[in-house]
Structure formats: C-alpha cells, structure tokens
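ENCODED BACKBONE
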Amino acid sequence: MNFDIAYISNNNIEETLRHKINTKTKPIGALGILEQIALQIGKIQNTEHPTLTNPTILVFAGDHGIAKQGEVNPYPQEVTAQMVYNFLNGGAAINVFCEQNNIDLKIIDAGVNHEFGEIPGLINAKIAFGTKNYQLAPAMNVEQCSAAIKKGADIVIETYNEGCNIIGFGEMGIGNTSSASLLMSYYTRTPIAECVGAGTGLDSKAIKLKQKILSEAYDKYTPSTDTDLLMYYGGFEIAMITGAILKAAALKMTIIIDGFIVTAALLAAHDTHPEVLDYCIFAHTSGEQGHQKMLNFLKKEPLINLGMRLGEGTGVAVAYPIIASAVSFLNNMASFESAGVTSSE
C-alpha cells in the first residue's frame, strides 16, 4: 500500500503561528512545551486557528503464537480475549480515561485467538486466530502482513470520514512486548537484552529466559525489508497500527503515540516514511525499559512520565487534555494588543 506523506516543514504557516504564540499575554516561551504543541498542530493543519475534532483512540487486539508456550508471558493467552470483552463492557482503564476526557473509543479484533461472533462495538478485522510462533516459523505470511497494514489504514480512513482529526492507538495482546522487543532491536540496533522488560510482570529470572528465547528468534531470520520484519516478528495488531499511523499522517491527522508497543509500530512506519514523525506527539514514557531507548532513537520527548506500562492507549488518553490545552491557549488567550497590555518589545 502506498502512503503519500508530506513534511509539515513545507507549510508556510510557521512564521504566522510563531508571531501569534509570541504575542500572547505572557513572556515568550513561558508556556513551554504547550507552545511547541500548538505550533506543531497549527503546522499540521496549516492554519493559525487549529481545532481538535472527534478525538479517537483505536485499540487493536491480537494474539501471538509464542504466547502459547507461556515462557515469555506470565498471563495465559486467553487473557487477550477476556480483556476485549472487558473493553466492550466498559470496565478497563482505557474506558474510564476516554469517558473522562470525551474521547471516542473503538475496539478492533485484529487477530485474537477467539471467535467473538457479531458483537456490538467490536470491529471485526481478524486476519487469523493469532500469529504463528516465530520460534518455529514466521509470525505471518506476506499476504497476511499486507492485509493487516491495509486494514489498519482503512479503519483510519473510516474514522477520518467521521470527522476525526486527532487520533491515538492502543493495543492488547498477550506476548506483544516480545514482538515489540524484536522490532525495536532491529530498527534501533539495540541488543536484545536492553530491549526486553518485565512485560505484564515477569520476575528477573523470567526476564533472562525471555531474553534468551528472543535472542534465538532474532538469529533465526534475516529480514531484508520493513515488511519482512513485521512478517517475521510482528503481531497482527502491531502491523495494523503501522498501517494506521501511516494513513493518519497521509490524511494530515495529529497522531498521539502511546507506549512501547505502539512505538514499535511507529518504528516500522518511520523506517519507510521518516516524515511520519512530523505528525506525532509522544504521550508518555512507558515503564517498559525499552521505551525510553526508542524515544532516544527517534530524538523525541514525551509529554508525561507517570511510570505507566498498561498499554490499551491509556497514555494517550491521559495526555490528551495537555494537547487540548495547547490548542485552547492558541485560539482563546488574549494578545498584548487585544488586551491592552504593554509587551516587552
């Protein structure tokens, strides 16, 4: 699938936006990172009057073949499907935070090892009943990988057509920190041992075993393209988020990046389209040890660091009010001229 993504540096609105930000009734730079966010969103939308409409988080769920062994994850694979039901019933953290901050939430079955049937509120985008165990064979074939990328993009198109211009992504999938660790290691050239963390709660002995298993998987294949990496090591939910990020950037949407898993999908998107970073705001630093190294590789600073490592897009939902504040001050705060306040100039 082809994605036409433009650098926002090509927009000519920056000087106008900087003047507007700098002439608000405050010292220059006094609103810190909020000023950077306001500038970025104004450039994305190519206007000095940006708006945030129908903020939405898409949560993609998928199962991983390696999780059936139980060696890299303390929770059984069945938890993925159970958590999808919890999302649909409104009982998860992401439901609470989305309701609190008026964010639309969509749940997508990207490839859960469970037959849900037709359930209200669940988007059926299932590629297969989980990926294969990449200790033995590639996680997916090239057709499945391409289909997952396309489905992620298509769901973003539908969301955009509903009036959304700011979007975030979450995930659920027992074993997906293992996939993310492998992807991180390849894209950032970081040793596996520095990519692997506790996931959903491994102790130090289990982490060492996880590092050994993933190191062996790392040496099993020789990927040559971006699609190869996702095909060998990815999850259906990670591949869909990759396609979703790329399409959101192509549609000039503001993208809020969550934690470790979503940033792994972003690494895949960035590898072929580095310009995608212009559209991304990084919500938080995950407590998963590899995430800060990912952010360092991308040379990006997150908005908050609360030690969260839940996934689900919770970092996006918690950080969203900060982003809304940036747009609000840009649009509603008085200028020195309009307020009759003497400026420093």
